[in-house]
Amino acid sequence: MPQCADTVGVEEEFLLVDTASGRTSVRADAVLARVQDSELTRFHAELAGTQVEAATGPCTSVADLGEALRQARTALEKAAEEVGLGLLSRGTPQKPSKREIVSRGNPRFRHVLDTYAGVVEHYEACGCHVHVGVPDRETGVRVLNHVRPWLPTLLALSANSPDNGYASWRMVEQSRFPGSGVPPVFSGAAEYDAAVARMVACGTLVDRAQSFWLARLSPKLPTVEFRAADAAATVEDAVLQAALSRALVHTACHGVESPPVRDDVCAAAVWAASRYGLDGAAVDPWRECRVPATALLERLVEHVTPALEDRGELALVHDLVDRRV
Question: What number does CATH give the domain 8-324?
């Protein structure tokens, strides 16, 4: 397999909250008008008018990545404060907006709303998406096949939307979309592209730029995009997701095999991760039984230790994991 690129970038989604009522506020346009793109970060609107996104450029150092994330949060917090709002980094809102949240002015957003109806009418879920550079799409598909068993653990590590007894209510809401969850195994880029095209033809995806898998090939960038994590509560949590995701990609690129796992067991593992986070049972996708979630996290760190050592990030990851558990 070709050498994977060294770059990693993060997209963070945030909720805008009215400071008086605590409810999410449909004022993304007002906040985005007060921030400017920089060499480090670009700011974007989301489907919901209660959300904004900050996307870093490609970074080779997690220290640089952390600095970009901090600057973006500071800029958005200041812009939100100027219009009487707070910035909330959480997978789902504590008090959702009572207004219509999806703008019909954007043609693509209108298409998404028309397609998914009630599933997106009040969908305010926020994630932390990690992009890791790959040299080509064939390599990207082989990486996807490798990381499948680890996606539930990345979700459990990130769980930051407690509600209704679940550690990650965001994942429960996301599971209502067609094709959500761990991606299937693909033989190569042609089969991957055919699967996406088939779902578009069937009407379950609005276009080829959309899919709901927890890891996918970016439709625009030469990256594998990890989409398992809830919005990160802190910059350090986002950095941890980025470091582990990049280490998984590099482990795959160095030819380390990940034993095959069943699709239905992966689905069970995603459910357990959303239900309990790190505080209860997880599903071991290889042994096909319940184990402590922290045991799988330890196994993940062990699995990517050589990749982390190569980049000098092992001590940092151990420290950040210790803070989470």
Answer: 3.30.590.20
